[in-house]
Amino acid sequence: MTTLSFGPSPARRDALARRIRLLVAATIAYNVIEAVVALTAGTLASSSALIGFGLDSVIEVSSAAAVAWQFSAREHAVREARERTALRIIAVSFLALAAYVAVDAVRALAGTGEAEPSPLGIVIAALSLAIMPFLSAAQRRAGREIGSASAVADSKQTLLCTYLSAVLLVGLILNAVFGWSWADPVAALAIAGIAVKEGRDAWRGKGCCAPTAQGQACANSPVR
């Protein structure tokens, strides 16, 4: 009689945990640099969008640090026990990001300040748009295979940064070329809505693909 094996083997699980730790470390390192550059450029250009983008990077560091803490445990049982706490931290990070982006977008639409063009901001937004999708996809694949809702949720945080990078890049370019200061905050409000949804899903433990006998199947029930 053949015994069905559910999920990855212990050796594969350890390899996936190491991969997630490396991806999270890379995400933290890049976001620290991104935060410093964006906050500096935003201050110099009086750009609320760039400052908001820099603060988003700080929030992303907290989310990635939560997953790093979870996967710093060598034992699989300990990592599972830390899952709920990591998800709560990620959810709060999403909601904090949504609140800041929404308030900042409304302030920008109300005309509280006019940002100057920022070549440095355009460069950092373009770099993030090129780098973040690969980090997000790699972590999401590993998280789904190992069955970690927190790793998948953190990868969505990274993917959200990609959307914000695109919004920021378009807004900075339109402002620099045409002087359309309204373009960025309007798109940012849509991003805030996405962040609220992802924060709610992370709080409920949704979005993880857990291993099954056939491979992976979507497990949209809350993590227990």
Describe what this molecule looks like in 3D.
- This protein has helices at 10-45, 48-71, 76-109, 119-146, 149-177, 183-204; strands at residues 208-212, 215-219.
- With 224 residues, the chain is mainly alpha-helical.
- It has a two-stranded antiparallel ribbon with strand order 1-2.
- Helix 1 (10-45) runs antiparallel to helix 2 and helix 5 (149-177) runs antiparallel to helix 6 (183-204).
- It is elongated, with a radius of gyration of 19 Å.
- The chain starts with 9 loop residues before the first helix and ends in a 5-residue tail after the last strand.
- The model is unreliable at 207-224 (pLDDT under 50).
List keywords for this structure.
about 220 residues; two-stranded antiparallel sheet; 6 helices; 2 strands; disordered C terminus; single chain
Give the topology, please.
Elements: H1 10-45, H2 48-71, H3 76-109, H4 119-146, H5 149-177, H6 183-204, E1 208-212, E2 215-219
Antiparallel strand pairs: 1-2
Helix pairs in contact: 1-2, 1-4, 2-3, 2-5, 3-5, 3-6, 4-5, 5-6
